[in-house]
Amino acid sequence: MPRHNWGVDHWPNLVELAGRARSEDEFLTEISAYCQRVARCEACDTFLVDGDTLVLKASTGHPEFNNRVRIGKRLGVIGRAFQSGKPVFIECDLEAQPEYAGRR
After folding, report:
1. Could you report the per-residue pLDDT of 40-71, keeping only the tens digit for each?
2. Shortest CA distance to 50 belongs to which of 27, 67, 35?
3. Would you list the DSSP string of 42-57?
4. Distance of alpha carbon 29 from its chain centroid, rounded?
5. 69: containing domain
6. pLDDT per position as a tens digit, 88-98
7. How far apart are the C-alpha atoms of 43 and 64, rounded to whole Å?
8. Residue 39 and residue 10 in contact, taking contact as beta carbons nearer than 8 Å
C-alpha cells in the first residue's frame, strides 16, 4: 500500500525539477531523489522502457548501476510496477519479496 498520495500536488515541484535539469539523466536522478524524500524511503529506482526491457536510469541506492541494469518487463518487482502502472513500495527487505529477480 503506498504511503503517499502521488497526486497533482507534486506537479509544481516536478516541473521545477524539469526546468533546472540540464539533461534527461539529471532530471531522472532528481526525480528519484525527490520521490525518495517524499516517500521517506531508503532508496528509489527509476526505470524506463527500452524495447522489450526496462533500463535502470536513476538509482538513489546504487547510482553506479544507472544505464547498466536491464530487466524484462514481466520480471520481478520492477515488472509488477510496470504491469500495474503504479509505484511499488517495499516496506523492508526487498530480497525477501517473492518476486525479487536477484535470486533467479
Report:
1. 888 889 999 999 899 999 999 999 999 999 99
2. 67
3. S--EEEEEETTEEEEE
4. 10
5. 8-97
6. 777 666 666 66
7. 14
8. no
